[in-house]
Design goal:
The chain has 13 helices and 14 strands. The chain is an alpha/beta fold and 391 residues long. It has an 8-stranded mixed β-sheet, with helices on both faces. The chain has a 6-stranded parallel β-sheet with strand order 11-10-9-12-13-14, sandwiched between helices.
């Protein structure tokens, strides 16, 4: 067991957006007031568009108060390629830990590059133990063979030399073995699923929601499958003309989805919220809807096959039964616990499933209750307590 009380801890991550609600942010929330000091380093991805491209460093004292905050100089991606941008982040991570003047009891690196920095810092005596926190894994991370080979080499290095590995899904172990990273040579592995702020979400009673509203939350990207519901909606509307779809989030597919809705003649039944900046903004949209979508297309190389989609736990915590394809492992748990339905990535069958749920209010109420019950098992506080108890 690793008792975080009185310990000094570093957490380093990459991000596309502000940190509220992310696993690393919830980890910091848990540690504040427990650890003697925390150093939190956040690097933006080079292709991030919703945040400035500056590394930020925040230091907290034993009371959980911010005592130091730094915004590092940014290097515009157009002035260097992605590889150089990531090398800069590696150097920054090492530099800011050394600059703090502390020796840390635990270093938590989210992704392999950040964990590599931890291994170097352990080698020079600035950190004692290193956690490799694996939130996303894909056998093909980059399209170019060279970059992908470098990425997987660092991945293997971190698996073999970290003190412990935190996987958000057990499927990651088999996925890494498929590309030659041996379980027997790897550090001890703990499954650390993504969670939710269950107690912070004020769910509405059934009488105050729109049961015929189907919501998709998250980035509008091809690998997330947001367009499937548009192809199914015309058939749903033939039976339930009050049905509607809400896209809660922004992304590269927004314009094409809007155009497709217009082509299908369903614009009046589709709403786009755009990017939602805060957790509260997200919750306020989701809690008023009836069903939630996680319709990932099947693909042998997709990272969704190995991950634990964070939005699914948020859906459940908002009381939403989830319609999910059998891609991430959590789909089977949702089915087993009656908190939703596994659907095929087929618009006709999706329409049939939705209409079947709309037609059976008793079944819907049962799924809604089971969704809330399942979400209660994934409160962040419980997850972190269980995780540190296993170290």
């Amino acid at each position: 067991m690793f008792d975080v009380h009185g310990k000094s801890i570093v957490s380093v991550k990459h991000t596309y957006f502000e940190s509220a609600g992310t696993p690393e942010a919830e980890l910091i929330r848990y540690l504040r007031g427990k650890a003697s000091s925390i150093l939190y380093v956040r690097h933006p991805f080079p292709d991030a568009v919703q945040i400035p491209l500056n590394t930020t460093v925040v230091e907290y004292d034993s009371d959980g108060k911010i005592i130091h905050e730094i915004t590092a100089t940014s290097i515009p991606p157009k002035e260097c390629n992605a590889l150089l941008f990531y090398i800069k982040d590696l150097i920054f991570s090492i530099y800011y830990v050394i600059r703090s003047g502390r020796k840390y009891d635990l270093y938590i690196g989210s992704d392999n590059l950040n964990t590599l920095a931890g291994l170097i810092l352990r080698k020079i005596g600035r950190v004692r133990r290193v956690v490799y926190y694996v939130i996303d894994f894909s056998p093909v991370r980059f399209p170019g063979r060279f970059l992908n080979a470098v990425y997987q080499y660092i991945n293997k290095l971190c698996c073999y030399h970290a003190d412990v590995i935190w996987n958000v899904s057990e499927a990651m172990i088999a996925g890494r073995e498929n590309i030659g990273i041996q379980k027997e040579k790897s550090a001890p592995q703990i499954t650390v699923p993504l969670g939710c702020m269950f107690d912070s979400i004020h769910r509405k009673p059934l009488s105050e929601i729109d049961r015929f509203s189907i919501v998709y939350f998250g980035a509008l990207r091809p690998e997330h499958g947001p367009g499937l519901i548009l192809e199914a909606l015309p058939e749903i509307l033939k039976v339930y003309p009050e049905a509607n779809v809400v896209f809660a989030g922004g992304g590269e597919l927004k314009n094409s989805l809007e155009n497709r809705a217009e082509t299908l003649g369903i614009t009046d039944n589709v709403r786009f919220t755009g990017f939602l900046a805060t957790d509260e903004d997200v919750y306020n949209v989701l809690i008023g809807c009836g069903l939630a979508l996680a319709t990932y297309p099947a693909d042998d190389t997709t990272y969704k096959k190995y991950c634990d989609p964070g939005k699914v736990k948020i859906y459940l915590a908002c009381g939403l039964p989830v319609l999910i394809t059998d891609v991430p492992a959590v789909a089977r748990e949702i089915k087993e616990k009656g908190a939703g339905v596994i659907v095929e990535h087929d618009p006709v069958k999706l329409a049939e499933t939705v209409c079947g749920i709309f037609a059976d209010e008793e079944r819907y109420e049962h799924m809604r209750k089971r969704a809330v019950d399942m979400a209660a098992e994934y409160q962040w506080e419980t997850i972190w307590e269980r995780t540190f108890a296993k170290i």
